[in-house]
Amino acid sequence: MAFPRVIFILGGPGSGKGTQCKKIIDTFSDFVHLSAGELLRDAKNSGSTAGELIQKCMMEGSIVPAEVTVGLLKDAMIKFGWEKKRFLVDGFPRNDENYNAWFRILPDPYVECCLFLNCEDDILVKRILGRAEGRSDDNIETLTKRLNTYRDSTQPIIRRFAEAGKLIAIDAEGDVDTIFNRIRAALSL
Ligand code: ADP
Ligand code: C5P
Ligand code: MG
């Protein structure tokens, strides 16, 4: 049996995960972009039984129970045919529970690395408040909570990948194309 090849993409809210993943899939056709946040928003909007819980967590800036998110990621990977593609799994694993659930639920996945988009908080705040998608969680009150969750729950996961020798850290400050070129160089694309 072939296993999925996965690159996790982590970084603070507004670090450019979605922007850079889009550039990668537009340039390299063997990649698929799966944003955990997008999958959760789609599930919420399509009347999933977990919809209310997802909405509550998003507005609190907290992390949705992992079995919900991993289930959505797994279904999406199966739909794309997981042996053929390289998956950019964006915004995951956000905490210990995400991390542990991934390795429990998905059999022997092959995680190539974790790509970390490193960006200072003041830039994250500017980018999120300037984002024009109309997301209900892109307000200063929820963003403050999301930044706290990022610091307390996600940064330890990033350190875990570093300790395992699986972290590729990218300076995510600067213009979009400069950062894309840094990612291409780091991933040998
Ligand atoms: P994330 O998915 O990490 O939360 P996004 O890719 O959605 O971040 O980017 C957040 C906002 O910042 C968007 O409005 C995007 O257009 C903008 N943005 C992304 N990368 C840059 C960059 N390098 N410089 C300036 N703005 C950026
Ligand atoms: O990555 P994104 O900014 O789209 O995530 C939006 C929200 O989705 C997060 O603040 C969080 O509430 C939820 N989320 C989650 N678990 C993930 C990814 C996102 O609970 N792994
Ligand atoms: Mg995003």
Cα shape: globular
H/E topology pattern: EHEHHHEHEHHEH
Low-confidence runs (pLDDT<50, min 5 residues)? Answer: none
In the CATH scheme, the class would be Alpha Beta
The computed structural class is alpha/beta
* Mean pLDDT rating: 95
What is the CA–CA distance across the termini? 26 Å
The ligands found in this model are:
adenosine-5'-diphosphate, cytidine-5'-monophosphate, magnesium ion
Helix content: 40-55%
The CATH architecture assignment turns out to be: 3-Layer(aba) Sandwich
Beta-strand content bin: 15-25%
Offer a concise description of the structure:
InterPro entries: Adenylat/UMP-CMP_kin, Adenylat_kinase_CS, P-loop_NTPase, UMP_CMP_kinase. It contains 8 helices and 5 strands, in the order E-H-E-H-H-H-E-H-E-H-H-E-H.
Give an account of the 3D structure.
- This protein has 189 residues and is of the alpha/beta class.
- The chain has a single domain (5-187), classed as 3-Layer(aba) Sandwich (Rossmann fold), CATH 3.40.50.300.
- The protein is built from 8 helices and 5 strands.
- The chain has a 5-stranded parallel beta sheet with strand order 2-3-1-4-5, sandwiched between helices.
- Helix 1 packs across helix 8 (176-187) and helix 4 (66-80) crosses helix 5.
- Cytidine-5'-monophosphate is lined by residues 13, 35-37, 40, 57-58, 61-64, 69, 91-92, 94, 98, 137, 146.
